[in-house]
Amino acid sequence: MKKEQSIKKHIEKIINPIFQAALPKELKQNRMSVGVQGNKERKYCLYQPHNLRLYFDFSKQTFNPQTDLKSSVQPLLRVEHKIKNKIENEYNNFLGYRITVKQTQVELIDLNPRWYVIYLDKIDLIKEQFLSRMDRKIKENKKALNKFIKIYGGSSKLNLLNMRSENKVMNEDAIDLIPIKMKFRSEAVKKVYNEKNVEFPDPILASNYLTTRAVENKADKITDGINSIHTTISDKLTPVLNKLTAQIELHLEVQRNTLINTQESIKTQKDIQNLMKSFNPPKIKGKPVRKRKYGLSNWELRIIQEEARKFWSND
Predict the structure, then answer these.
(1) Residue 97, CA distances (Å) to 79, 84, 90, 141, 203 in order
(2) Tell me: the pLDDT tens digits for 105-153?
(3) Domain-wise residue ranges, the chain
C-alpha cells in the first residue's frame, strides 16, 4: 500500500507541472476570476482556433529559399525546409509556424494552438471576445512573417487574403453532455475526435452558438425582467387610463345629447314647414304674397302665434 502511494506521489510530481504548463494563460494569471478557485459564479468556456491557416500576399522577387545570412542560421537550426509541388517552399517550425511560400501568397499555420477563455456572463461581449482573440492571432502571424522576410527575403504588404480554422469549443454545459465517443458532422458544427469539444467552421458561428446558449440560460431572468417592466408600466398607466376613459365617456355623452337636440330641432322645423303648407297665403290685389327668401313673413309669424295660443289654452 505504501509503495503504491509513493508511486502515485512520484507520478503526480511529474504530471502536475505538465498540466500547469498546458493551462490557458488567462487561467493561470486570473484563476479567481474564471471560477477555477473561489468565485464559481462567473460562467466561461474555452475556445481554440485549431489548425489556424492565414494567407497573406507575397512577392518572390527578392526571395532566397536558402538564406546566406550566417548570423541568422543559428536560431533556425530546427527549421525544416523542403520543396512541395516543385514550386512551393515549406519551412516547418519557424518560430512555431509552418510557413509555405506559394506563387503569389504565403501560408502560415500555427503549430502551437492555445486555448482562450471566453466569458459568458455578459452576452453582448461574447462576439467581441472572439474578434479580439482572432485579431491577436493575426498580429502574431504578421510579426512572424516580417521576421521570415528579414531572413529569406521577399516582400509582403501584409494584406490578409484568407483565413481558415477549426474553431473548438469546450467546457460548455450542452457540449459536456455529449458522449466522448460520439461523432457527427454537419455544415454548422462537427465532432470528429474522441474529445470533450466540438468544432465550428467559423469563429462567428462559434460566438453565435455561445450567445444563444447564454440567452437560454438567462431566459428566466429576462422573463422576470419583462414582467417587472409590465407591472411598473401598468401601475403608472392605470390612473391615467381611468381619467382618460372618464373624459371620453363624458365627451360621448355630450355628443349624444347634442345629436338628440339637433334631431328634435330638425323635427320642429319640419312641423312648421308642414303647417305653413296647410295655409294659403293671403292675396294682395289678386296676387299671392311672395315668401321671403330669408326668414318668415309677417303673416307666417301671426299663424305661428295663433297656433301657440291654441296650444297653451288647451293645456
Answers:
(1) 10, 16, 10, 8, 21
(2) 999 999 999 999 999 988 889 999 999 999 999 999 999 999 999 989 9
(3) 42-67+75-217, 236-284
pLDDT at 221: 63
Beta bridge partners of residue 76, listed in sequence order: none
Predicted confidence at residue 32, as pLDDT, reads 37
89 in helix, strand or coil? strand
pTM of the model: 0.57
Neighbours of 127 (CB within 10 A): 17
Question: CA 119, CA 125: separation in Å to the nearest integer?
Answer: 8
| Angle, vertex CA 130, rays to CA 125 and CA 134, nearest 5 | 145
Nearest to 43 by CA among 99, 121, 151: 121
Concatenate the DSSP letters of all residues of 182-250 into one string: --EE-SS-EE-SSSSEEEESSHHHHHHHHHHHHHHHTHHHHHHHHHHHHHHHHHHHHHHHHHHHHHHHH
Q: Which residues contact 162 (CB under 8 A, 6 or more apart)?
A: 53, 54, 55
Confidence of residue 274 (pLDDT cuts 50, 70, 90): low
Q: What's the CA gap between 200 and 168, in Å, rounded?
A: 6
